[in-house]
Amino acid sequence: MPQITYSFANVAGSIVGPNGAFSFGYGSGIDDGGITAEMSEDKVDIKTGADGKPMATLHASKLGRITVRVQKTSPLNAFLSALYGADNSSATQVAQNTIVVRDLGGIDVIAGQNCAIAKFPSLTYGREGPPNEWVFVVGQLDMMLGGGGV
Q1: Tens digits of per-residue pLDDT, 59-91?
Q2: How far apart are CA 15 and CA 20, in angstroms?
Q3: d(Cα 67, Cα 24) in Å, to the nearest integer?
Q4: Which one, of 125, 118, 130, 24, lies nearest residue 78 by Cα?
Q5: Which member of 90, 96, 103, 142 has the greatest number of CB atoms within 10 A?
Q6: What is this structure's pTM?
Q7: What are residue 20's DSSP bridge partners?
Q8: Cα distance from N-terminal residue to C-terminal residue, the chain
Q9: Which residues in 4-148 belong to E strands, given as ranges?
């Protein structure tokens, strides 16, 4: 019987690279905005020729972004901050991370290879503590909805 219930309590993620490995998801101080994965480019482009005939082009690119919104008080910020510094210490360290986000209920899987933190998050201090948004650029992003595996 297919699962019909979603809960962030079932979401688990991991980052593995030459400068660290750690888990994130439920219980690690993820903000209400959660985790977002998105492709950076359209996969298909259709153009019309001079005679009105369409031509479709299938692009090989799997570039994407994974954004992890972390509560200001979460220890996850310290791990990500250290990862940012270590990954940017040398060109040989950049874009060597793998990120996997999985719904443990078996619904969705996001897998990113050649991941790097795009920039240190903007820091805001105000009446309420806003999240720190850690944006990863992803060289190869694969996503599977409802299938449980990539």
Answers
A1: 999 999 999 999 999 999 999 999 999 999 999
A2: 8
A3: 12
A4: 24
A5: 103
A6: 0.90
A7: 17
A8: 21
A9: 11-17, 20-25, 30-39, 44-48, 54-58, 64-70, 97-103, 109-117, 132-144
